[in-house]
């Protein structure tokens, strides 16, 4: 189901303009890792999934998307798992940690909401990566954010940054603080790089 949907989306999205993908070699990481991507609209979720094929992404999604029986089934087929964004408890990290330990890729949007502005990042991506002891691959996206942008044929671009590893020489909490700082800097730099390609 995942590959069917992803390949169908690839065909549909490509009708509005092919995506340019930069530095995908940075995703050649052994084992599981966290993909931390900028988030400006629902289209970036689709293009991120397509750009990572044949690798599957397990997305963290808000629990509201799992309330109806059909949507719950559909989200599960796409390897998404629910999280309560208002009250994230210890269980919020349980599923992604298990996936990461099994060598899977978990997709997170650390801004926590769709925005074109720079906002303080939420700590979910770093918390997952830190406790699972896996790297974070930062990703920046620029392009269409909605149907209107798609029909205007706004060109999509995505760039993958260098993996950010947990510093083994530091205690876990300090190491995660370092990862957080590096993630913020990396996402900022990647967005600037994409703007330079215009």
TrEMBL record:
GO cellular component entries: membrane
Entry EC number(s): 2.3.1.51
A GO molecular-function descriptor: 1-acylglycerol-3-phosphate O-acyltransferase activity
Pfam families, per the entry: Acyltransferase (PF01553)
Catalytic activity field: a 1-acyl-sn-glycero-3-phosphate + an acyl-CoA = a 1,2-diacyl-sn-glycero-3-phosphate + CoA
Domain Phospholipid/glycerol acyltransferase: 33-144
Keyword Lipid metabolism among record annotations: yes
An individual GO BP term: phosphatidic acid biosynthetic process
Record SUPFAM superfamilies: Glycerol-3-phosphate (1)-acyltransferase
Keywords annotated in UniProt: Acyltransferase, Lipid biosynthesis, Lipid metabolism, Phospholipid biosynthesis, Phospholipid metabolism, Transferase
CDD domains for the chain: LPLAT_AGPAT-like
UniProt remark on domains: The HXXXXD motif is essential for acyltransferase activity and may constitute the binding site for the phosphate moiety of the glycerol-3-phosphate.
Similarity annotation: Belongs to the 1-acyl-sn-glycerol-3-phosphate acyltransferase family.
UniProt-recorded name of the protein: 1-acyl-sn-glycerol-3-phosphate acyltransferase
Native species: Virgibacillus pantothenticus
